[in-house]
Amino acid sequence: MFELRRLRLLHELSLRGTLAAVAEALAYSPSTVSQQLDQLEKEAGVPLLEPEGRRVRLTAHGQALVAHAARALQLDEQARAELASLQSRLAPVRIAAMQTAAQNLVPRTISLLAERAPTLRVEAAEMPPEGALLELSARGFDVVIAEQYPGHTRPRQPDATHSLIGHDPIRLVVSADSAAQALADLAAAAWAFEPDGTAVRQWSIQQCRAAGFEPDVRYSAADLGTQVKLIAAGHAAGMLPDLTWGEGETDAVRLLPLPGDPSREIFAAFRTASAGDVRIELVRQALADAFAERASLVG
Length: 299
Known about the structure:
It is a single chain. It contains 10 helices and 11 strands. The chain is an alpha/beta fold. It folds into 2 domains: about 5-85, Arc Repressor Mutant, subunit A (Orthogonal Bundle), CATH 1.10.10.10; about 90-299, D-Maltodextrin-Binding Protein, domain 2 (3-Layer(aba) Sandwich). Strands 3, 4, 5, 6, 9, 10 and 11 form a 7-stranded mixed beta sheet that branches. Strands 1-2 form a two-stranded antiparallel ribbon. Strand 7 (about 190-195), helix 8 (about 200-210) and strand 8 (about 215-220) form a beta-alpha-beta unit. Helix 1 (about 5-15) crosses helix 3. The longest helix has 26 residues, at about 60-85. The relative contact order is 0.15.
């Protein structure tokens, strides 16, 4: 009989690629991870791992067992969700959120959950979608709040479900004293975008090219608050979604429409196996309600 804990280690290895990464994620020592996988290999009676330089990789047998491990973990999660639904006190739910959601959506979501499910403990962390969605499959989080820009869909893990929360308009942002009225007026402007390699930066550059110019991307910042300060000071222009703004934070800038009035999709991702978990449904509904409440905040 396979032990579920060891199956999880093999599943984690398939996601993270190295024994050291598995050990760090699960707070084990690398030697413990190696010993447990050795024991799993003995239980399986076939080689699961083989050396590849200084690392290891899954054999064909290992890949086959990973698929079964994923199903075993899903069944375990479904069983726990059903048991949790029968309890008066709910188990904690762990949320990972991108920056704008962490700042301007998660606090209201937690307030709604406190009203609707006082016994539900919510744990939240700010994390970029790319890392958070991997951690979702690795069971580091239960819900991930992420986004998709027009024409830039995110790859989906086979064990994850995406639930649309709402559409977040994206607008051209300039300083309060800027004379610009449209994107084409900013061909000679400096720009503040997210770091190179991100989907949003690629999308933003494409908007400028469609308007007939190559943007002068002079400032790069993952922190949208930094971008806002550069724009408000008149040093740059930018393209930011409405979820960026808290109440009164648009006073120092002007928001202008972009061609086609684009918007990004805000979605909640969770493991498909937890779809029947009452905690997940409570979080999903609270997120949708919190997003709808602030939809009219930015005009």
